[in-house]
Write the structure tokens for this entry.
Amino acid sequence: MRKLKRIVVGASVLVWVGVAVSTVPVAGAELTMADEIVQSKVVLQLEEDGRINWEELRVMVDQGHVTLFGEVASPEEKGWAETIASTVPGVHSIRNDVIVDVAHSPDYKIRLAVWDALKQTPALERNPTIKVSVRQAAVTLKGDVLDDLSKKAAEKATEGVSGVKNVINRLQVVDRLPPQKLNNIEVVR
């Protein structure tokens, strides 16, 4: 019985030591408890504030010095991210390495969503001529389609995309689409 207790106690110590060793911070790799708290509070503030798209932002904290990085759609969002982070207790300084990327603008996101909607529309999924442009949430469709039904389907699919204010449908109905190359083989429809 004593021997069994020693084995159990010894195994418990080994398990405890193993856990302790696995959580020892590597130089610069782990945050201190205070840094973890500051980091979680900064992230929470960014998430709760409605002025920025926080999903593409990341936060690093080292002894209260915060580094913001990621991408936003405008210089205003970059400034707001820094302002929001500066309100968190425990933040000593902020380095704002956030990149302003127009590709994250609402028009760009709408354009991608319209492309996805058009690809899911059976009459349009293999049409290489359709071009989509977006300016201030107004979508313009250009290119060729084979019939009026396809033209209306493109317009309906585009109208169904969140954020689209209006659709300018400049699609033209043609007898056949221009040849398209698939694996170096010309496909005519």
In short: The beta strands are 57-62, 65-72, 93-100, 131-135, 138-145, 166-173, 180-182, 185-187. Residues 24 and 30 are 8 Å apart (CA to CA). The longest strand covers residues 65-72. Helices lie at 2-22, 33-48, 75-86, 106-119, 148-159.
